[in-house]
């Protein structure tokens, strides 16, 4: 039975106000939607994708593109030997605060240890070569000292250190061990004294950063000193001049990493050398006294 609208008093059906509601057709059947079943949304709504939907992936060979390789000139975790060599060159040819400030973001223990290891290996090789070169010329002196130590009943053979020894194989082994230890100890002293003198580490002034900055001048200058050590006269001058120049470079690096005045930074940089000179002088004095006593006892 179909729906019938209510009738007016006169028997006429009542029409909705404004024509809003249209009663279903008399037959009561469902009216199908008009042709063109899908009616797109009004303007401003969702627009379907072009070409009717999903876009297939690109053909083989044109898919995923890997990110570009990271260069080593940036952060400390990246490694690039060429960039590290350029840092060495800048550190020794342009020693100023700005040079070392620019290197602070590149600091890493990997780069520091690579530089120190290179110094140790090359210094050990040069020690062996120097020992082989000087072994023949020092033979007579070695025999004289050996006889003096034997007469004094001292269990020590000077040939270990004057033949093909720390000028030779034993010296090379000592160099491999002592080079990283002396570098780290010297850097600890410089960094600690700088802190005591008011250094502030807000520019990456932690110990690892300072070790890296120090290695930038330490590595090339100490390698140069080791290579020149086999040349008479030149080697002696290089063994003094290049380490002193390296300490000056460390002073600039302390200014950069510790925000410190030049005088205080240079003082902190030279403290290990001052301590070393005092120790060497003390050891030489003690050794001379022992040797003189041994010679006097042997001559009686």
How is this structure best summarized?
By secondary structure, the protein is mainly alpha-helical. About 60% of the residues lie in helices and about 0% in strands.
3D shape:
elongated
Task: List SSEs in N-to-C order.
Answer: HHHHHHHHH
Termini gap: 148 Å
Low-confidence stretches: 62-77
Instruction: Count every beta strand, where a strand is a DSSP E run of 2 or more residues.
Output: 0
Radius of gyration: 42 Å
What fraction of the residues are assigned to beta strands by DSSP? under 5%
Report on this model:
The chain is mainly α and 300 residues long. The protein has helices at residues 81-93, 97-103, 109-134, 139-151, 159-162, 169-196, 207-228, 234-258, 262-299. Helix 6 (169-196) packs antiparallel against helix 7. The radius of gyration is 42 Å and the shape is elongated. The N and C termini lie far apart (148 Å). Residues 62-77 have low confidence and may be disordered.
Topology diagram in text:
Elements: H1 81-93, H2 97-103, H3 109-134, H4 139-151, H5 159-162, H6 169-196, H7 207-228, H8 234-258, H9 262-299
Question: Which features does this protein show?
Answer:
300 residues, 0% strand, mainly alpha
């Amino acid at each position: 039975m179909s729906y019938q609208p209510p009738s007016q008093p006169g028997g006429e059906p009542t029409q909705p106000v404004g024509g809003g509601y249209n009663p279903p057709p008399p037959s009561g059947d469902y009216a199908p939607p008009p042709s063109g079943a899908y009616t797109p949304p009004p303007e401003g709504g969702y627009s379907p994708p072009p070409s009717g939907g999903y876009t297939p992936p690109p053909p083989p060979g044109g898919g995923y593109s890997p990110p570009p390789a990271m260069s080593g000139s940036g952060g400390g975790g990246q490694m690039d030997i060429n960039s590290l060599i350029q840092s060495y060159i800048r550190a020794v040819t342009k020693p100023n605060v700005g040079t070392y400030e620019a290197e602070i973001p590149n600091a890493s223990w990997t780069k520091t240890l690579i530089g120190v290891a290179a110094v140790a290996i090359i210094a050990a090789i040069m020690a062996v070569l120097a020992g082989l070169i000087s072994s023949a010329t020092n033979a007579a002196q070695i025999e004289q000292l050996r006889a003096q130590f034997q007469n004094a009943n001292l269990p020590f053979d000077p040939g270990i250190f004057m033949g093909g020894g720390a000028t030779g194989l034993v010296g090379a082994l000592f160099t491999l061990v002592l080079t990283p230890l002396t570098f780290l100890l010297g850097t600890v002293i410089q960094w600690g004294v700088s802190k005591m003198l008011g250094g502030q580490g807000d520019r990456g002034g932690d110990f690892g950063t300072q070790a890296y900055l120090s290695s930038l001048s330490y590595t090339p200058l100490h390698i140069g000193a080791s290579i020149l050590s086999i040349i008479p006269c030149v080697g002696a001058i290089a063994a003094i001049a290049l380490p002193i120049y390296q300490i000056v470079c460390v002073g600039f690096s302390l200014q950069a990493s510790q925000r410190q005045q030049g005088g205080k930074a240079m003082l902190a940089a030279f403290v290990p050398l001052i301590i070393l000179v005092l120790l060497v002088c003390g050891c030489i004095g003690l050794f001379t006294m022992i040797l003189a006593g041994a010679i006097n006892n042997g001559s009686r």
